[in-house]
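Continuing the batch. This is chain 6 of the set; chains 1 through 5 are on the previous pages. Same settings as before, nothing changed between runs. Recording input and output for traceability.
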Amino acid sequence: MSIAIAFIVQNYNKYSFAALAGALESMPKTKDMPIYFLPGKDVDRLAQEVKRAATKYDTLAVCFSFATTNIVEVYKTLAKLRANLDSNQVIYIAGGPHATGDPTETLQLGFDIAVIGEAEETFPELICALSDGLDWRQIKGIAYTDHDGRFMRTGKRRPIDLNRFAPFSTKHNKLSPIEISRGCPHACRFCQTSFIFGGKMRHRKLGEILKYISLSKANGTRDFRFISPNSLAFGSNDGKTVNLAAIEELLVEASKITGKKHLFFGSFPSEVRPEAVSKDALNLITTYTATKQLVVGAQTGSQRMLDKLHREHTVEDVYRAVELILACGLDVSVDFIFGLPGETKADRESSIKMIDNLTDMGAKIHSHTFIPLPGTPLSNAKTGIVDKELSRYLSRLANKGLQFGQWHTQQRLAKEAFIFRAKSGTQSTTNPVIRNLQ
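Output for chain 6:
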């Protein structure tokens, strides 16, 4: 049976699909699988492209990867595609943070299959089963709707070995920053990372990282960055203790390939945790990379909230990290989340006080609005709201060049998602993560 894959690409999932294409290339049975990377912005044009591709194969797997804030857009796009082409020839597959956090709701949106968790093993195995006419319902790591309308989940997979899979696709020239670490031991209550990828941090081997840096450079990449929940945790056995020797070896060897002026570490799409920052770590960054700015996750200036959110660092850790970063000549942006559940007036005042102090020191503030994410302990909390007073405060900071971020857009998208989920009745009412943590 002939089969092809159509990835519906948006700016928010381009790295995910680059990695998934790399995983397909890493497996002998799927390395030559036809793949279409179809831009998802223009839905009418997308529908035409999907219909055209579907005529060439017995089966076309149309694939989405999305977060909760994208749910309204994805639902409309999927409905449009199904209206134009809804047949046994096309199978609609969802993956990403939302599908993992709430696979039942994802299926109710109209998807045939939801891939849960890491997809590097699951997705190629699923595609092979579809291609060979095998029973794909036995594959671990998926959810689907059976003939009686029941939502079924197969068994959970073990965490993957990153070293088995390419981090991007050279065949299709879909290059991306290289993921060097996955998982997080901190389990912050608002964040999906620990609950999707596990609490044990896994690292890509240095030799593999260097191999893909060389491949990326050979295919035209100019500047090199890494993906990690905490860059300064690379090589750490517990994901908390900083392994300076591993970081130094990575930066020394990587800079030999890229050149110092093209290597970046601890900035987007990564960040650093405040308690991990030290003079020695910063010396490595300034010696071997062209990093101009580090991103530090603070999230709130209230120690009470930090403890409640299970951040596992202190207010003092944030001040110390910012002071050290600025002292070594780097810029620093500090993440804050507004509208956190359970936040009191005193907590918010503590955050504002910290922001004032940090900006006086020379830091910039990267602002976010709290979004309840499925699969986390705060999945059933209310969407964060930035009131008029706080909005004016953030605007004043922005006018001074001291604040940036997508908090306003996040608040709008979170509200749209909440209303959509409430009206459609698709949101799951149980949260196994919360039940397991209690």
